[in-house]
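Hi, here's the filled form for the chain we discussed.

Project: internal
Contact: R.S.
Residues: 668
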Amino acid sequence: MNFLSARYKGNLPVLVTELILAAFDILANAMYRAEPQRTITILRSFLVNKLPAFLGNYTAINFAPFSIETCISQALLRIDPTAFPSLSQMFDFSSKSSIVSEARQEFLFSCALHQLIPEGSIENLLGDVPMQSLPASGKYMKADLVSECTTNPAKIEDLIGELENMEGNAGEIAGALFEIITTLCSNNDTMTLKGICISLVRKSATLDSVALFCPPQTLLQPLCHLLDGWEGHEDQVENQPVYEEFGSVLLLVSTIKHRFKLLPSEMNGVDPDSFTSRYFRLASESRTTDQLSEHENDLLGGWVRGLFEAEGINDELMSTCKPAEFYLLLATLFDQSIKACQSSTLTMETLKGGFEYLLEPFLLPSLLAGLTWFANTLWSMSSSSTQIDTLLPALHTLLKPPSISTDSAAMHSAVLARVAESLNEGLNHAQLQHKNRVDIQPLLEVLRPHMTHHREKATAFSELETWTRTPPNGLSTATGNMIQGLISWSFATATTSPPPYTHRLLLSAQTILGATTTLNTLLDIITHQATHHGPNSQEVDTVFDIIVTMLTAPQPTKPPLLTLPSALRTLSSSTVTTDLSKTDPMRASILVRLHRRVEAVLAATHPTHDLGLEMNMSTAAGQGMMLHDSQGMPATDIDAVLAHTEGQIASGDFSGGVGLGQGGGMEL
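And the returned structure, exactly as it came back:
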């Protein structure tokens, strides 16, 4: 909202029109780039479920009178007709277009649902008789949904199923789900919570829709807090339900972490010594019996006897071992079991029979750590190792069980979605080490359908390879071509399809080439336009607009040591620009203009934005970078500051401060 206010300066009609148009363009771009179906679905959900609700809230706090219907009409006149044909044209287009071809109609009905336009205007805006209608249940309200689900918990699963509907109600459903989950965690109602967790895990794609309205880190907080302080219920006579409930919550937490590729540091509010932190850090690493406490050794012995001896898994065993203790012992349990089979202490049939116990619903989430241990073990195995003769038959039992219940099958698929990537790498490595084995490929085939169950932030290798082979200069040329495509598109006289664009290209260039080299590539693009069209031409203003927006866009991953805005501050320092103005005055002028425009956007969109160089001091020293004060001017060489700082650390004297800015805060 800060960005939109700063960019459009109160011109709401243009703001609304261009925001709607951009949402359609991005969806069309994803289709033309053949992005995965899950990516297209979430962009479509943004257009239909998120944008109308956002526009309703945004325009409600701005009192300038204008017609949203007129804005929608103007935007629809400018969208790509190939990607979004009229209803009468839909049947004349390829199936590829039909992926998103109903988006116009869905968007308009969602706008009507949110009372941005009257339902009667839809036919006129479409230019056709609509083929759908408003949802029969009308517009959902979060408070009503929470109340209904509290009275009738069975309704929760129905709502989860509706999250992927393109009707405009997903935001209220997501808000209600988060409130319900938070309340259940607070009240320790783990029985009801188990059903919600299993439903979300089975339909993990719905988590993308939830994440449009509730950040994954926020959803994880109450769930992690519950696991870390798990108390169970005093009135529970049997312990198997305790394991079921704990495992279902852990499986959902693991699914969210995996789907959004969250780092431990991104799981807000998690104590590093808590169970969840230790689990994601250590659960797949086996320990020797000497590294276990006496209590842990007793528990390990109990589980070995329960799995592989006649007594089986009983309530007495589970009553002496808390679920959290069991999940932190799993890698060691798998390691010891495989070694016992190798030494003939256990027969292969006994080993496989014991592992089949773990396919019961109340123990099945244990395969998260267990299969990860298998993946790590396969990856570290040499070609001369005989351990593979035990590992593969045991793994076959866990991946392709001879029989499995319906309830277990759904949870088993969810577990495989979580571990498929690492296990696939381990098995491929094993195949390279043991080329003549024919029992590896069938296991890889089992994993294949489960390999795409996460939202990938990184660039695919095939995509990166295409960019790096772009003549003559690889990534730099590919970046220039992408921006030139946007420039040409912006000046097209007729409505045309958007050019292929992905922000991943800029992020890849920044990571591989470095921020300074990438920034110089961007400056070359502006300089080229200024040379051909004049420094104050509309073409140059357009390329400035494109590049400034790219430079100030939020980082989807942890930023590198030196970000592009930081590199720009370094290059635009007074010393550099003064020297550059003597040899290339046009480039010096462009550098200063770009720096000023980037800082203006950052100041408007990030009120707490620190203009000091965003870098880690200890690693920056090795790169010979310079420190800057809060105005972006060079302060001193970092080696001198480090030497001074090390002296203060050694003496315990910090009275002089380190790089103090005008506000008295320490800036690096």
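Let me know if anything looks off before we file it.
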